C-alpha cells in the first residue's frame, strides 16, 4: 500500500514581484494528522490553492495516493477525495444546515427535483457516527459557530472525502470546542482519514499533530516529528530566530483614573439579547488593561459603545473626569481617546486614499491642516505625513502618495498606530492590534503599546490571542456572553484558568 | 517594485481618456453597423453628418450660430452630469438626477410664468426643488436604508406626474396646446441675461450666461471635491462609509447633503435650459426627459471628472444635434440617442479597459524584471 | 367594476412576470435595473410577430405561441448584454442596466421608424406598430369580462418559478450563487453559468411581460415611449415581494390594482366626483412603493451577493 495520501513535490509558484512558494515539498501520510505551520504570508494559503487547482504552479508535481494528479479546479480536488474546512466558512447563511451539506451533490430524481429525505438520513447517520451534532433544519445564521464548523466537516464526510484539510480551524472556537475538535480530528485519523491541519498555534499543533511541516517566507524549512520536537524549536523554524514569548516591560507605575465605565449595556444587532450587559470597569494611567475572551462575546460591541460607533442602551462613560456617554465620536477623540480599530480595512483606513490623507483622518479639520475658508493645507499634510512615516517606519512604495490599498497589512497597521498614538491620547483603545501580522510587526506594535503605558497613558487592549493577553497586559478582564466574569493579574493566573472563565465554566463577582 | 518609467500611458488620466475614446469609437462602430443594416446607401453620409453637426454649414457665421445652439444645450447636460458625478464621488448612483432635473424645470417655469419672478429667483427655486428631491433620496437612504437607485427611479416618475399637473395650471399652460406658454412674451425678465455673449455667436439669441455659469459650476465642483475639507469628508464617506464614521465625520448628514447638492445641480440644469426660452414643457409627456439619464452617460464618459464632463457633455450634445440633421428619408434623429446609449453601455466597461491596459503594462514590467533577474542571476523576494 | 378587475389582473400579470424575471436575476446575484429595456425589446419582438404573422395562418393558438416565443427570445437576447457585461466583464451593474434601458428605447425607435419609413415610402415616420387583429386572438370574452390568455401565462410562470426556486436542484444552486458565490464555487457549482441562467430567465420573463403590457389596453404602441416606467414598477414589486415568488404575486396584484384604477377611475362615480387629475392615479403606484420601501427596507432581505461581480481569483 502506498504510504502517502498527498505528496506535493518541489512546488514553485510565482506572482508578480514575489515567489509565494519556492520549492516546497509536503508529504501527508495516510491516517496521520499533519500540521502545516507558518506565519501569515509564509505561503500556506498559496500552497493550498495550488492543491485545489486555483493556481497552477510553475514547477513541481502533485501526487495523490501515489499517482500523479492534474488538478485544474476544486472539482478535480473533490473527485480525488480532498475536502477543506476553510478559515472563513463557505456556508450560505440563509440556507439550512442540510441544504448546505448537500449543495453541489444534491440527491435528485430523474427530473432533478430535490430528494432531501435520503440526504437527511445519511447526514443524521454520519452525525451520530462521528459525534458531530447538528440540527439539519436550522438555518446557518441561527446556529453557533461550533455547529457551523461541524456542518463544514459533515460537508466533507458527506462527499466521502478521505483527505481533510482544516485551515486555522480553532480561531473562532472556545477552548472546550477546541478540545472537542481535536478529539474529532483524532477519531477521523483513526478511521483512516488523512488530515492536514494548518495553523500558527504551537500549543494545538503539539497537542494533536503527528508531524509538522514548516514554511517561512515562501520557503520550505523542514518537517519534524512532533514527538521529537519542542515548541521553542517549532517557533524558531517558523520565525527564523529565537522568539521571546515575553514582552520586555518595567513594573507598571499606576496613576489616576482615566476611563471609568459604569453599568454599560449595548444592544446586539443580531440577537434580541444585549451584546454587552451591565459592564463596569476602570482604566488608570500607566496600565494596560486587557479584555480577553472568545470572539463574539461582546468585545466588539463594548468597543463600539466606548468609542461612540454605537450608542449605549444604558450606563455612563467618563473619560478624564468628563462624562462622554452621549458625546459624538469626534468629541471623544478630542477629549483624548484614540482607537486602533479591530478591522483596519473597514474602519481604520480609507483604502482608496493616499497614505498622507489617511494619516490626517482624525485631524484633517484642525487649523494645522485646514484654513479658515475650509481649504486643505496640502503642504502641511504632506510634511506631517512624512514625519510620521519616518518616525514610525511605515514602509510603502511611493511614500506619502502611496494608495493605502497597495500597502502591506503590517504597514497599514503601523500607519494606523502612528496616527492614533501621535494624536497624543490619554486613553488608547487597541482592538486586536496585531491580528494577521508577522512576528516582527507584532513585536513592534507591542513595543509601541508598552511605550504608551510607560509614558503614563492608559491603554485598553482587546485581544483574542491568549499569548498576547498574558504577555502585554497589567490586568486582565475576561468577557463571556457580554459580561465581565473575571479579573486577574497576569502574573498570578494560568492560561488554563483563564480558559475556564472564557468558556463560562467559572465566574467571579467583579467590582468595578 | 522599483521605480517604473513614467510614460504617458501610465498616467491615470491618460488611461481614462483612452478608455473613453474607445467607448466613443465602439459606439460609433456599432451605430454605423445599424445604419448599414437599415440602408447601406446613406450610412456613411449619416454618420458624418452626426459627427459634423454645425460644421456642415459652410459659412463661418452659421457655424458660430449653431455652435452657440449646441453650447446652449450643453449647459444643462453638463449640470446633470455634474449632479451624477458629485453623488457618485460620495458613493451613490444618482439615477434620480432625471427627476431632480424635472423638479427644477417645474419650479423654474412655475415661478417664471405664474409669479413672473426674475431669472435669478427662478434659478434659485429650481435648485431648491432639485435639492429637496435629492434630499428625500438621501434621507430615505440614511434613515430607512432605501437604495438610492430605487428611490431615485420612483421619484423620477412621481416628479414627472407632479410637474405635468403643476404646469397645467391656468396661466402657465397654453390653453391651445399641451405646452407651457412662452417666457419670452410673458415674463421677459425671467429670461437669462445675455451680457453680450450672443455677439460671439452671430447674435444667436439663445446664447445666455447659462454657458459660462455651467462651466463655473464644473470648476466649483472640482474645487470643492478636491481642495476643501468638505470634499475630503465627502470622498472619504463615499470610499468608506465606516471609516468616515470612525473618524467622527457626520456621515449621515454628509449623505443627505450630498444628495441635496447633487439635486440642486440637476435642478439648476433644468433652469439653464428652460429659462433661455428655447423650449417649453409638454404637459402630456409620459416619459421622464432623457437629459438626466444622458447626464449619467456624460459623467462616465468624462471619466467622472468635472473637467472631463465639460468635454464629454459638449461631445454628446454635439452628436445629438448632429442627429437631427440626418437625412430622414432613410433614418431618424434617434440614431444619435442610439449611439449615445451605446457609448454609455460601453462606459460600463471602462473599468475593464483600464484593467486591460494596466495588466498589459504589468506584464511588460514583469517581462523586464525577469530579464533583469536573469542577468543578476535570480533575486530574493 | 368588471373592467377594474380585468385591468387589475392584466397589469398584475405584467408586473408578476417581470418581477419574477428580476427575481431570478437578482437571486443569482445580478442586479437587473434593465428590466424596463428588456420589456421594451420583448414587446418589440412580440409586436413584430403580431404585425406580420397573418391571423389566418394558424389561428389563435399559433398566434399566441409565436408572439410569446418571439417576445421571450427578444428579451433573452437583449438580456445577454447585461449577462456579458456584468458576469464576464464585471462591469457596474447599475450603469449597465441604465444604459440598457436607454439603448432599448433608442434601438426600438430607430428600428420601427426605419421600418415604417421604408414601408410607407417616407410618408409615415412614426414609431408606432399597430396590431389590432392579432390582439383580438388573445382575448376570450366571458360575458363582460375579457379573459386574456396572458393571465394564464403569468399564473403558470408563478407556479413554475416557485417550484424551480425551492423544489429543484437548479433553484438551490441559483440561490446559493446570489447569497454566497464563493461557497457555491467551492462545491463545484459554476457561478458564471448560474448567473447567466438567472439573467437569461429574467430576459425571458421580462420579454413576455413587455408584450403583455403593450397589448393590455391598446391596439397600437408608440415605441418612442419605451414601456413608460413599468419595468421600474416591476422592480419595486420585486423588492416589495422580498424576492419571493408568492409575495411577489401578492405585491403585483396590489400594484396592478392601483395602476388599473388610473385607467378606469372615471367609471366610478365616487372617484370621478373627487375630480382628481389623472396624474394622481398615475403616480399612485410609485408613491405607494416608495412608502412601502421606506417602511420595509431597514432589514433588507436582498440576496447578499447581488451587485457584486464574482471574480474566481479573489477569495
3D structure, described in words:
Chain A has 512 residues and is an alpha/beta fold. Chain A is 32% helix and 25% strand. Chain A has helices at 44-51, 74-79, 97-102, 116-130, 145-158, 175-190, 202-208, 231-239, 299-307, 329-334, 344-348, 355-359, 378-392, 409-422, 439-454, 466-472, 495-502, and strands at residues 4-15, 18-29, 33-37, 59-64, 67-68, 82-85, 163-167, 194-199, 211-216, 219-225, 257-267, 274-284, 288-292, 314-319, 322-323, 337-340, 427-431, 458-463, 475-480, 483-488. In chain A, α14 packs parallel to α15 (439-454). The radius of gyration of chain A is 25 Å and the shape is globular. Chain A starts with a strand and ends in a 10-residue tail after the last helix. Chain B has 381 residues and is mainly α. Chain B has a single domain, classed as Orthogonal Bundle (ABC transporter involved in vitamin B12 uptake, BtuC). Chain B is globular, with a radius of gyration of 23 Å. Chain C has 13 helices and 4 strands. In chain C, the strands form 2 sheets. Chain C has a two-stranded antiparallel sheet with strand order 1-4. The mean pLDDT of chain C is 89. The N and C termini of chain C lie far apart (57 Å). In chain C, α1 packs across α10, α2 (35-52) runs parallel beside α4 (93-120) and α10 crosses α11. By secondary structure, chain C is mostly helical. Chain C has a single domain (2-299), classed as ABC transporter involved in vitamin B12 uptake, BtuC (Orthogonal Bundle), CATH 1.10.3470. Chains B and C meet through α6, α12 and α14 of B and α4, α10 and α13 of C.
Strand content of chain A: 15-25%
Terminus-to-terminus distance of chain A: 64 Å
Q: How would the global form of chain B be characterised?
A: globular
Q: Can you give the mean pLDDT of chain B?
A: 86
Estimated structural class of chain B: mainly alpha
Kindly identify the CATH topology of chain B: ABC transporter involved in vitamin B12 uptake, BtuC
In the CATH hierarchy, what is the architecture of chain B at level 2?
Orthogonal Bundle
The interface involving the most residues is between: B-C, 51 and 52 residues
Strand content of chain B: under 5%
| Quaternary structure classification | heterotrimer
Percent of residues in helices of chain A: 25-40%
In spatial order, strands of the major sheet of chain A run 6-7-8-3-9-10
E-strand count of chain B: 0
Amino acid at each position: 500500500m502506498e504510504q502517502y495520501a498527498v505528496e506535493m513535490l518541489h512546488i514553485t509558484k510565482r506572482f508578480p514581484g514575489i515567489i509565494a512558494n519556492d520549492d516546497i515539498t509536503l508529504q501527508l501520510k495516510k491516517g496521520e494528522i499533519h500540521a502545516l505551520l507558518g506565519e501569515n504570508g509564509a505561503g500556506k494559503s498559496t500552497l493550498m490553492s495550488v492543491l485545489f487547482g486555483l493556481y497552477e504552479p510553475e514547477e513541481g508535481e502533485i501526487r495523490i495516493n501515489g499517482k500523479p494528479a492534474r488538478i485544474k479546479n476544486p472539482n478535480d480536488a473533490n473527485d480525488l477525495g480532498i475536502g477543506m474546512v476553510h478559515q472563513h466558512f463557505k456556508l450560505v447563511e440563509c440556507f439550512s444546515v442540510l441544504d448546505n451539506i448537500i449543495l453541489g451533490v444534491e440527491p435528485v430524481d430523474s427530473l432533478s427535483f430535490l430528494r432531501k429525505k435520503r440526504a437527511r438520513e445519511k447526514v443524521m447517520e454520519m452525525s451520530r457516527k462521528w459525534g458531530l451534532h447538528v440540527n439539519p433544519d436550522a438555518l446557518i445564521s441561527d446556529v453557533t459557530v461550533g455547529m457551523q464548523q461541524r456542518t463544514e466537516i459533515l460537508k466533507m464526510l458527506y462527499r466521502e472525502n478521505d483527505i481533510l484539510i482544516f485551515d486555522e480551524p480553532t480561531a473562532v472556537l472556545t477552548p472546550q470546542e477546541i478540545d472537542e475538535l481535536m478529539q474529532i480530528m483524532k477519531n477521523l485519523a483513526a478511521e483512516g482519514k488523512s488530515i492536514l491541519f494548518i495553523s500558527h498555534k504551537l500549543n494545538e499543533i503539539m497537542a494533536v499533530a503527528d508531524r509538522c511541516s514548516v514554511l517561512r517566507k515562501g520557503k520550505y524549512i523542514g518537517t519534524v516529528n512532533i514527538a521529537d520536537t519542542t515548541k521553542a524549536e517549532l517557533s524558531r523554524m517558523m520565525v527564523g530566530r529565537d522568539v521571546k514569548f515575553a514582552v520586555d516591560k518595567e513594573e507598571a507605575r499606576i496613576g489616576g483614573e482615566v476611563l471609568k465605565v459604569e453599568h454599560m449595556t449595548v444592544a446586539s444587532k443580531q440577537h434580541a439579547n444585549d451584546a454587552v450587559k451591565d459592564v463596569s470597569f476602570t482604566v488608570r494611567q500607566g496600565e494596560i488593561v486587557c479584555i480577553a475572551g472568545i470572539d463574539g462575546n461582546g468585545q466588539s460591541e463594548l468597543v463600539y459603545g466606548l468609542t461612540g460607533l454605537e450608542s449605549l442602551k444604558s450606563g455612563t462613560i467618563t473619560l478624564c473626569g468628563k462624562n462622554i456617554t452621549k458625546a459624538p465620536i469626534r468629541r471623544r477623540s478630542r477629549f483624548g481617546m484614540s482607537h486602533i480599530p479591530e478591522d483596519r480595512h473597514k474602519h481604520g483606513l480609507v483604502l482608496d486614499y493616499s497614505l498622507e490623507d489617511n494619516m490626517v483622518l482624525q485631524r484633517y479639520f484642525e487649523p494645522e491642516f485646514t484654513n479658515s475658508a475650509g481649504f486643505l493645507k496640502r503642504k502641511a499634510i504632506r510634511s506631517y505625513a512624512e514625519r510620521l512615516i519616518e518616525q514610525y517606519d511605515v514602509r510603502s512604495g511611493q511614500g506619502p502618495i502611496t494608495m493605502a490599498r497597495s500597502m502591506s497589512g503590517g504597514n497599514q497597521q503601523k500607519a494606523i498606530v502612528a496616527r492614533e498614538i501621535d494624536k497624543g491620547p490619554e486613553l488608547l483603545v487597541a482592538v486586536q492590534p496585531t491580528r494577521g501580522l508577522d512576528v516582527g510587526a507584532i513585536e513592534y506594535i507591542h513595543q509601541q503599546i508598552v511605550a504608551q503605558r510607560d509614558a503614563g497613558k492608559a491603554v485598553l487592549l482587546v485581544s483574542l490571542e491568549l499569548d498576547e493577553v498574558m504577555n502585554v497586559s497589567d490586568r486582565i478582564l475576561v468577557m463571556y456572553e457580554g459580561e465581565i466574569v473575571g479579573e486577574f493579574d497576569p502574573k498570578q493566573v494560568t492560561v488554563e484558568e483563564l480558559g475556564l472563565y472564557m468558556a463560562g465554566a467559572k465566574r467571579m463577582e467583579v467590582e468595578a | 517594485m522599483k521605480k517604473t518609467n513614467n510614460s504617458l500611458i501610465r498616467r491615470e488620466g491618460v488611461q481614462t481618456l483612452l478608455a473613453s475614446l474607445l467607448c466613443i469609437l465602439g459606439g460609433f462602430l456599432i451605430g454605423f453597423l445599424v445604419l448599414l443594416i437599415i440602408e447601406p446607401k446613406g450610412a456613411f453620409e449619416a454618420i458624418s453628418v452626426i459627427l459634423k453637426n454645425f460644421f456642415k454649414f459652410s459659412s463661418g457665421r452659421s457655424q458660430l450660430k449653431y455652435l452657440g445652439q449646441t453650447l446652449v444645450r450643453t449647459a444643462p447636460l453638463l449640470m446633470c452630469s455634474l449632479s451624477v458625478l458629485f453623488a457618485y464621488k460620495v458613493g451613490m448612483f444618482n439615477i434620480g438626477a432625471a427627476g431632480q432635473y424635472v423638479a427644477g424645470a417645474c419650479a423654474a417655469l412655475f415661478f417664471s410664468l405664474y409669479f413672473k419672478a426674475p431669472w435669478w429667483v427662478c434659478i434659485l427655486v429650481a435648485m431648491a426643488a432639485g435639492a429637496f428631491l435629492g434630499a428625500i433620496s438621501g434621507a430615505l437612504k440614511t434613515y430607512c436604508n432605501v437604495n438610492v437607485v430605487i428611490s431615485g427611479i420612483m421619484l423620477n416618475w412621481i416628479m414627472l406626474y407632479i410637474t405635468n399637473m403643476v404646469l397645467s395650471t391656468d396661466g402657465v399652460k397654453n390653453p391651445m396646446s399641451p405646452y407651457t406658454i412662452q417666457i419670452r412674451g410673458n415674463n421677459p425678465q425671467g429670461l437669462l441675461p445675455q451680457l453680450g455673449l450672443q455677439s460671439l455667436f452671430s447674435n444667436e439669441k439663445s446664447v445666455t450666461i447659462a454657458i459660462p455659469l455651467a462651466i463655473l459650476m464644473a470648476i466649483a465642483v472640482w474645487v470643492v471635491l478636491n481642495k476643501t475639507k468638505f470634499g475630503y469628508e465627502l470622498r472619504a464617506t463615499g470610499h468608506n462609509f465606516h471609516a468616515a464614521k470612525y473618524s467622527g465625520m457626520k456621515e449621515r448628514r454628509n449623505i443627505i447633503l450630498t444628495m441635496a447638492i447633487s439635486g440642486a445641480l440637476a435642478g439648476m440644469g433644468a433652469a439653464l435650459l428652460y429659462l433661455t426660452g428655447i423650449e417649453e414643457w409638454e404637459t402630456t409627456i409620459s416619459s421622464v426627459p432623457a437629459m438626466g439619464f444622458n447626464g449619467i452617460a456624460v459623467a462616465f464618459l468624462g471619466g467622472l471628472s468635472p473637467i472631463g464632463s465639460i468635454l464629454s457633455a459638449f461631445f454628446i450634445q454635439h452628436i445629438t444635434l448632429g442627429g437631427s440633421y440626418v437625412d430622414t428619408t432613410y433614418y431618424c434623429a434617434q440614431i444619435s440617442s442610439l449611439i449615445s446609449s451605446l457609448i454609455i453601455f460601453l462606459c460600463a466597461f471602462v473599468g475593464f479597459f483600464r484593467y486591460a491596459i494596466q495588466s498589459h503594462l504589468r506584464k511588460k514590467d514583469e517581462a523586464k524584471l525577469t530579464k533583469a533577474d536573469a542577468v543578476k542571476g535570480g533575486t530574493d523576494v | 367594476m368588471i373592467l377594474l378587475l380585468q385591468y387589475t389582473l392584466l397589469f398584475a400579470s405584467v408586473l408578476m412576470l417581470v418581477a419574477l424575471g428580476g427575481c431570478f436575476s437578482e437571486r443569482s446575484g445580478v442586479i437587473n435595473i434593465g428590466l424596463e429595456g428588456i420589456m421594451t425589446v420583448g414587446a418589440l419582438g412580440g409586436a413584430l410577430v403580431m404585425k406580420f404573422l397573418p391571423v389566418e395562418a394558424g389561428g389563435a393558438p399559433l398566434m399566441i405561441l409565436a408572439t410569446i416565443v418571439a417576445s421571450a427570445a427578444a428579451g433573452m437576447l437583449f438580456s445577454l448584454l447585461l449577462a456579458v457585461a456584468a458576469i464576464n466583464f464585471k462591469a457596474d451593474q447599475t450603469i449597465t442596466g441604465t444604459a440598457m434601458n436607454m439603448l432599448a428605447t433608442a434601438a426600438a425607435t430607430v428600428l420601427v421608424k426605419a421600418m415604417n419609413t421604408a414601408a410607407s415610402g417616407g410618408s409615415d415616420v412614426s414609431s408606432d406598430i399597430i396590431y389590432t387583429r392579432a390582439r383580438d386572438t388573445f382575448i376570450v370574452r366571458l360575458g363582460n369580462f375579457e379573459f386574456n390568455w396572458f393571465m394564464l401565462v403569468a399564473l403558470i410562470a408563478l407556479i413554475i418559478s416557485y417550484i424551480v426556486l425551492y423544489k429543484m436542484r437548479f433553484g438551490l444552486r441559483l440561490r446559493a450563487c446570489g447569497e454566497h458565490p464563493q461557497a457555491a464555487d467551492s462545491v463545484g457549482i459554476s457561478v458564471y453559468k448560474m448567473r447567466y441562467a438567472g439573467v437569461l430567465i429574467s430576459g425571458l420573463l421580462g420579454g413576455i411581460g413587455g408584450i403583455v403590457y403593450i397589448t393590455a389596453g391598446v391596439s397600437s404602441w408608440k415605441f418612442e415611449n419605451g414601456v413608460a416606467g413599468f419595468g421600474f414598477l416591476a422592480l419595486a414589486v420585486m423588492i416589495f415581494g422580498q424576492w419571493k415568488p408568492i409575495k411577489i404575486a401578492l405585491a403585483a396584484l396590489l400594484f396592478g390594482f392601483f395602476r388599473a384604477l388610473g385607467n378606469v377611475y372615471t367609471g366610478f362615480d365616487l372617484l370621478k366626483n373627487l375630480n382628481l387629475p389623472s396624474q394622481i392615479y398615475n403616480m399612485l403606484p410609485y408613491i405607494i412603493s416608495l412608502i412601502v420601501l421606506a417602511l420595509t427596507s431597514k432589514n433588507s432581505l436582498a440576496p447578499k451577493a447581488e451587485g457584486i461581480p464574482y471574480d474566481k481569483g479573489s477569495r
